[in-house]
């Protein structure tokens, strides 16, 4: 897990695979970004609309029929973490939620796995 600053308000954390890290190192050596890891054509930060277009284009290339947005990716990431047994507090930290109430929306996925729980009375 690697900390990064998304805004001036707080640090956030991201999971980063070894493969992705190596790809980022190659990218960094080639492009030499100055302020942001991924910079726009003039060196500034990407606009939200540009990021949305990149995500939507990738979804089209991947032949994903559903509408995909950065927020959908974030929600899917958290849902998959929860379904694989990750503690809600850890998800809260990864998503940067100030309140555990915000993260509790991911508790709905646990009902999908109730049938897999072994009843100690059986």
From TrEMBL:
One of its GO terms (molecular function) is DNA binding. GO terms for biological process: DNA integration; DNA recombination. InterPro entries: DNA_brk_join_enz (IPR011010), Integrase-like_cat_sf (IPR013762), Integrase_catalytic (IPR002104), Tyrosine_recombinase_XerCD (IPR050090). Keywords: DNA recombination, DNA-binding. Gene3D superfamilies: Intergrase catalytic core. Residues 1-119 form the Tyr recombinase domain. Belongs to the 'phage' integrase family. This is Tyr recombinase domain-containing protein. It comes from Zobellia amurskyensis.
């Amino acid at each position: 897990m690697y900390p990064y600053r998304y805004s001036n308000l707080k640090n956030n954390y991201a999971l980063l695979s070894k493969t992705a890290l190596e790809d980022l190192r190659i990218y960094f050596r080639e492009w030499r970004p100055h302020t942001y890891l991924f910079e726009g054509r003039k060196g500034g930060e990407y606009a939200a609309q540009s990021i949305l277009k990149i995500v939507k284009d990738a979804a089209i290339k991947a032949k994903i029929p559903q509408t995909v947005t950065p927020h959908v990716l974030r929600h899917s990431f958290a849902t998959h973490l929860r379904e694989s047994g990750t503690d809600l507090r850890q998800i809260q930290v990864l998503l940067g939620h100030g309140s555990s109430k915000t993260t509790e929306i991911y508790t709905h996925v646990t009902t999908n796995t109730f049938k897999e729980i072994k009843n100690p009375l059986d």
